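**Protein record**
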Amino acid sequence: MLFDLLEADKLGLALTESFAMTPAASVSGLIFASPEAKYFSVGRVGKDQIEDYAKRRGMDLAEIERWLRPNLAYDPD
């Protein structure tokens, strides 16, 4: 029913026999807002967290900082 409402087929979306959406990265849903809803945000990421993440991923610290720059609690320069 949701796919019919969204006319998902016109966007190239489909459902498999087990009702998984294709392409695999597809997401859809009905979202309802409420004036009583509470929203939150995740805080900025510290340098120690970025260093640990880079180490665990085996990636260059500068590359991680470049990708996550808007979320950093420090200036990587």
